[in-house]
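Field reference: sequence -> structure
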Amino acid sequence: MARKVILFELNEVPYRIFDYYCDRHPASAMAKLFRQSQQYETIAADQGELAPTRTWPTVHRGVDDTQHGLKNFGQAVDEIDQAFPPIWQILAKQGIKVGVFGSLFTFPMPKQDLENYSFYLPDAFATQKDAIPESLESFQAFNLLMSRASSRNVSSDINLGAARDFLTRSLSLGVKPSTFADIGQHLVKERVKKHVKNRRRSYQTILSFDLYMAQLEKTQPDFSTFFTNHVASAMHRYWAALFPKDYKEFGLEDAWVETYRHEIDYAMAQSDRLCQRLMNFVDRHPEYVLMTTTSMGQSADRAEHVDSCVGVQDMPTFMQRLGVERGEYEDRPAMAPIFNVVVQPHKREIVRQKIQQLEVGGNPIGGEVEEGFFEFAFGPLQNYRGPEVAFLGQEKLTFAEIGLSNVPHEDGVYLTGSHIPEGAVLMYDPRHVAVDGAKRTQISTLDLAPSLLHNFGVTAPDYMNRPIGQLIAA
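Structure field:
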């Protein structure tokens, strides 16, 4: 008999962080999860540069990035969904009830088998607020605005209209009063300790999770997902504060380490709260198993001070310099210092020609990812000290004239942690408590989708790996 499955997508957390947290907090829910879960170490199967936009589609679709081709937020997925559909689409087509909450590449909304979606909230890089049920749209509108405002530095601004609409519906949607109390206490703390503003990323997760749990309790689908990036975000920025001895060269000041050394621990503590609620639910509903997975991991990168990065400040001006007017392109969500647009067909050749001539400080910054989808990547322009000018062929333009600016990094770093192939899977099953949870069998990220399908009695497509039969016990 098929087991119901909760897929908790705790983005990029490696065993190094899990072990650290459980050692420090032996009485935590996470430590209990570890003691009682079967553990697997996943190896990301992707061939290109590791990124969640590559590794999560691999987990969901059972093919690597050379086949699914996904690597940028906002890419069109219609053709890819036809060739390599994500697991929730395969299950829904078979009449199996599914729920999706924030998993990557879940926009646009599904067009078929809608009766088999108990709930569906697209990822935070969606371009519209659509959701199932429709009552979640007020949250999604607020969520998307806050995510855009905090793509690199956390914004202190709150869109009052979107916030008001969501707040009037929040309690009926499942947000706990204790969550609002925590947020209020945090906002007060920000006034005293300015650096903790970065923790707002965790509160977006906590709000989302309240809504997810309300939908899970109400509809109890056979398979559901919940995605969160809050720990990954903290690790990227603050790995060097937690593990300064990981680096051969360390260019950050002691004061910076002291300021940020608790941030990963804080993010994991929020994950611990989520784990506790998920384990409580599974314990009350033993027909479920809890599958926590990460798609890949992180480790030390560079410990250096980075005070700014060049980026697009005024997209209409920037695009106009490339020969494209308002209404002839669409912004696509991205994480700074990357900026994406889709250009209408009649202007694409003009942009192709222009970006071949575009550079800042000798660095080309534009490229076409797929037909009409253009990426402008400013990663090499961290700590840029050159003249604030861009060259478009023979034309020399100031940053203001082309819509660029040198944007400060509020926490003084870019990436101190970077992606590694090794990730984690933890299988918590109240019917079959693991007795040797610490034994970490190594598997591929390509093994997860076919094994999940196998659990539901669905034959995996020929392009997928053979399932691991024992991953989910009957």
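Note: The longest helix spans residues 263-284.
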